[in-house]
Design brief:
This protein is α+β, with helices and mostly antiparallel strands and 211 residues long. The protein is built from nine helices and four strands.
Amino acid sequence: MYTLYARPGSGSFVVEAIFAEAGAPCEIHDVERLPGRIPPDYLLKLNPLGQIPTLILPNGEVMTESAAITIYLCDLYPETGLAPAPDSPKRAAYLKWLLFMATTIYMSDLRAIYCERYTDDPNGVEAVKASALKQRNRQWDILETALGERQFLLGDRLSILDIYAVMLAAWNKDSREFLAQRPKLRALYERVRGRPKLASVFRRNGMEALT
């Protein structure tokens, strides 16, 4: 049995989505928010950075980093079709865009939302946030262009890239306006949100009415 340390509306959404698509059992443990955003001790013992998602494999091994967990699980459940096979001609694009979202857009989101973590100068907080928002907008424009006229990022079939993109888009406080400015991503959001297997995941993460 897998155990996922999660929190609604966080990076654990994508991991929940993979288990839902695979129809595989996973015990979800929601991590409470403590004053000062300090991770609880039990999470720090598993993951010294106190980050979510943290996944415990059936053999007891601990996995962290959403992109690593995503790659691992999608390869473990190839029947979901969420990731191209290692020998697929689409594999390179899959890895490129997954890492682009995980290491570029995701990081811009964190700097914008938790800007105080990225400077020791109290007077620099707003500058960090402004820079992060500027970079994030450009990064999303790159993804909007990459989507082109395709229904999904890798073509005519849903992949985990689309689910990951939807998760990140939902983190924008002004998601309605944000997606309205990027109509291709808005359409992608609606396609993913309408997928029956993911309905309960969207509900649990409070993402049904974002657009």
